[in-house]
Amino acid sequence: MEFTRAVIRVYGRVQGVGFRYYTLIHARRLGVRGYVKNLSDGSVVIVAEGLEDRIRELVRMVRRGPLLARVDRVQVVYGKPKMEYSGFFVLR
Question: CATH code for 3-79?
């Protein structure tokens, strides 16, 4: 299995509902590196690097989101990993 990078944008009711910490927990459990951050337009961006199957599992998890979230749309762009992260973090 190869390493990959995904930039994931999640739209809907995804701020103020624990979405970043939900993502953090699942990314760390999957051994994915990168970050999750709220954006000023109300969406969330996730930059994730790891084994391809783990990244695809993370995408499945964020499509569901935490209990109070409402995910309307998810955009995923795959690319080559840059190997620039030592873990997975929440950025403010």
Answer: 3.30.70.100
